[in-house]
Specification:
This protein is mostly helical. It is about 70% helix and about 5% strand. The chain has one domain. It has a two-stranded antiparallel ribbon. The longest helix is centred in the N-terminal third of the chain and has 27 residues. It starts with 5 loop residues before the first helix and ends with a helix. The C terminus is likely disordered. This is DUF998 domain-containing protein.
């Protein structure tokens, strides 16, 4: 289910590091948003990627001078997850690695769409906002299902029970937060969308880090050695 070669280790290292790079770029973009000051609990994550100066969209005031930094973080995260998945999983090993690969693809493509089609007023007017919304939903659903499935497939992945439980819990929190976010958004409530969105997104990053650490610590099952000559043949 897991490839056992140096390229897979490179993929695991990339999967371990990219969430931290993403969070760093998010913090840099948020630090530049000062009028009004960016609120992690209230303001949407994707609004950090909206260029064009002060504007009002989705019920919030937007002003992200370093929107390109946030969008770089989105696209980078998506590309790395897709590439790492291709390096790590042995898709010929059955349905489970294919499921994990497809969920990684959904997350990666979704995040790339979020960074490529910012949720701006212009996007609403020209209707490209649909790509942003589809991408955000695909990323949050696909990423959290990936977290849950890594826990459920722990024996095949070689993950210890504690790490598997952590990923399942993280994914469940992420999915529940995503549902709460969508319900409040549909009702037009003035809620702490930033908090709910982060509770739907950050568990995915936790799951990626946990899964990558498990791989790098050697918990992934090793490939069986090639059969050698029998004792009778050697005698």
């Amino acid at each position: 289910m897991i490839r056992n070669h140096p390229a897979a280790r490179i993929g695991a290292v990339a999967l371990l590091l990219v969430p931290f790079v993403y969070l760093l770029l998010e913090a840099v973009a948020a630090s530049a948003w000062i009028e009004p000051r960016y609120d992690y609990l209230y303001n949407w994550v994707s609004h950090l990627g909206v260029p064009g100066g002060p504007q009002h969209a989705f019920g919030q005031d937007l002003n992200s001078p370093l929107a390109w930094v946030m969008n770089t973080g989105f696209v980078l995260y998506g590309v790395v997850v897709i590439a790492a998945s291709a390096l790590i999983f042995r898709f010929s090993a059955g349905a489970r690695p294919i499921v994990l690969g497809l969920l990684s693809l959904a997350f990666g493509v979704g995040v790339i769409l979020v960074g490529s089609f910012p949720g701006s007023l212009q996007a609403i007017e020209d209707r490209t906002i649909v790509y942003h919304l589809i991408g955000a939903q695909a990323a949050m659903v696909g990423g959290n299902l990936f977290a849950i499935c890594t826990g459920l497939f722990r024996r095949q992945l070689g993950m210890p029970r504690g790490a598997a439980v952590l990923n399942v819990v993280a994914g469940a929190i992420g999915l529940a937060s995503f549902v709460a976010f969508m319900v409040l958004f549909r009702t037009g409530a003035d809620a702490q969308f930033g908090l709910l969105e982060r509770l739907a997104q950050y568990p995915i990053a936790v799951a990626h880090v946990v899964f990558a650490i498990c791989l790098l610590r050697g918990w992934a099952p090793a490939r069986a050695p090639a059969p050698g000559p029998s004792r009778e043949a050697a005698a």
